[in-house]
Amino acid sequence: MMTDAMTSRLRPVQPGKTTLVAVLDIGSTKICCVIARLTPRAEGKALRGRSHQAEVIGFGYGPSVGVKSGVVTDIEKAEHAIRTVVGMAERAAGLTLESVIVNVTAGRLGSETFSAAVSLDGQEVEKSDIHRVLRAVNERSVRPERSIIHALPIGYAIDGQKGIRDPKGMVGDKLGVDVAVVSSETLAMRNLELVLHRCHLQIEALIATPYASGLATLVDDEAQLGVACIDFGGATTTVSVFNDGHLVYADAIAIGGHHLTLDIARQLSVSVADAERLKTFYGSVLPGQTDERDMIPIQPVGATHDEAPGQVARSVLTRIMRPRIEEILTAIRDRMQATGMMDVCGRRFVMTGGASEMTGLPEVARRTLARNVRNGRPMGIAGLPEMAKGAAFATVAGMLIYPQVCAQEYAEPRGSRRLTGTDGYFARVGNWLKTSF
C-alpha cells in the first residue's frame, strides 16, 4: 500500500445503511481501539455533515509502549501493546477484527496546497474531466520519500472563476482545482504498517491526527468561517486549519504534555509518575493569588518511606510549566504565520487533547495567539465509557466520523483490501460487472 502514490481509499458509508467500523489510535502515551456501529441519523442543524450516529460496542484502552512521538521505536513492545488493546475491544464487541482505521502523527506530518488546470475546449465538465485535473495535481505532489495521507479538493475554478464547489455540468475552456495534500514520511508509515501486520491487522485507511481532532470538536459554522484546532497530545502537538468547510492545513511539532511532566520531574527531582500526579492535581499555567502560600508535598527520588516528604509552593509548579506551554504556542503561531494560515483561520482557536485540560491554558493561549480560544470536546458519539468522553479522546471520535466524510477526498482508483465482507467473491463479481458493462 505504501509504495503507491496515494494511500488506500476508504469506502464511504452508504446513506441509509448500518455498518461497523474499527479505529485504532496509536499515541505516545496511550493506545485506544474502538469498534462502533454507524447507524443512519436524521439531518441535524449543528452537525450537518454527519450522516450516521456512532454507537460504541467495543472499547479497549492501555498505555502506549514502544512508540515515541507517533514513531515506532520498539516493534516487539508496540506489537504487544496493540494486541492487548485490540483484544480488549474485540472481546467487548464479540467479533474479530481484520482491518482498522489508523491515525498518523509521525513522519514530520505536513501539508501543502497544489493547483492544476486542464483544457475543456468549451465542453461541459464531466466526471472524467474532474479525475483528469485531480490526477494532474497528484502527479505534481508525489515524492518517493513521502506518502500522501489525504488529498482534499478545496475548490474548483472554471476560466479563472473560483469558489465553485461542484463543476460537473458547467461549461468552460479551462478547469482548475486547488487541493490540500497532507503527507508524511514513507519510512515511518511502513514501520507502522509492519507492526499492524504482525498483529494480523490490515490498514483500512490512514487519517492524520489533526484532521481527526478537528472533525470531532468543530461545529459547522466554525469550519465554514475559519478556525484552527490544536490537539495537545502526550509527545506531539498537532494543528489543523479549516476554512470554507474544508481542511486546508495540517502540521505537527514533537512537543506535548509529557514534556511538561519531564520538566517537573527534573526541576523538583521527583519520579516521572509523581511528576504526572503533581501536574494533574496541582498544575496550572496561570498564577493564582494564593499560589505562594499553598504548599504541595513532594517525595524526592531516592527518599525512603520513613523520611518526611518535602514541600514546594504551588507557584513553583506554575513557573516550571508555563514556559513550556508558551514555547508550544509560540512555535505553532510562528509556523502558521510563516505559511499565511493565521489569516486563514480567522479569529478562533479550539483546543483539545489530554494536555488541553490544564488550568489556565485558554487564558495563556489567548494572550500568546491573540485570538479567541475555547476548549473542544468530542461531539456526536454515543456509548463511550465515562473515562473516554474527555478531550483526550477527540482523535478517536474524529476517526469514527471520518468514514462519513471521506467521499470528499481523491485517491487513485485501484483495488485494495477492505473491511470484512467487502473483498469477497460477490464483491469481486460486482466490480467486474461495473467495469465490464
From TrEMBL:
Chief location of this protein within or outside the cell: membrane
Topology of this chain in the membrane: Peripheral membrane protein
Keyword Cell membrane set for record: yes
GO terms for biological process, alphabetical: FtsZ-dependent cytokinesis
Record's GO cellular component terms: cell division site; cytoplasmic side of plasma membrane
InterPro entries in the cross-refs: ATPase_NBD, Cell_div_FtsA, FtsA/MreB, SHS2_FtsA
Cellular location(s): Cell membrane
One Pfam family matching this protein: FtsA
Keyword entries, A-Z: Cell cycle, Cell division, Cell membrane, Membrane
Residue ranges annotated for the SHS2 domain, each copy included: 21-217
UniProt xrefs under PANTHER family: CELL DIVISION PROTEIN FTSA, CELL DIVISION PROTEIN FTSA-RELATED
Quaternary assembly: Self-interacts. Interacts with FtsZ.
Alphabetized NCBIfam families for the sequence: ftsA
Functional note: Cell division protein that is involved in the assembly of the Z ring. May serve as a membrane anchor for the Z ring.
Family affiliation: Belongs to the FtsA/MreB family.
Protein name: Cell division protein FtsA
Species this chain originates from: Devosia epidermidihirudinis
Source lineage: Bacteria, Pseudomonadati, Pseudomonadota, Alphaproteobacteria, Hyphomicrobiales
